[in-house]
Design brief:
The chain is mainly α and about 90 residues long. The protein has one domain. Helices cover about 85% and strands about 0% of the residues. The protein has helices spanning about 1-20, 30-50, 55-60, 65-90. α1 (about 1-20) packs across α2 (about 30-50) and α1 packs across α4. The longest helix has 25 residues, at about 65-90. The model has no long low-confidence stretch (mean pLDDT about 75).
Amino acid sequence: MGDIIAWLVLGLIAGALAKLFYPGHQGGGIFATIGLGILGALLGGYLGQVLFHSGSAAAASVGAFSLGSIVFSVLGAMLLIFLWGLLTRNAV
């Protein structure tokens, strides 16, 4: 149960920071923010571990709290926000 709460908190932090740093208006409320944050943590952790062989990137993919895991989570969430913007822009 504690792992799920940790994922939600890390996802909320990563998603909120990604929306704060990413320019422009992105749709979605709090649930989209958490979802993008959690998926961003997984994506950022995986890509960081593959590209940089970083332990802090691996921590992002397992939901651990550290500065490195938050950075990789935010970068992953920003990438997902960018991709989401491309998909929704073409749909409208």
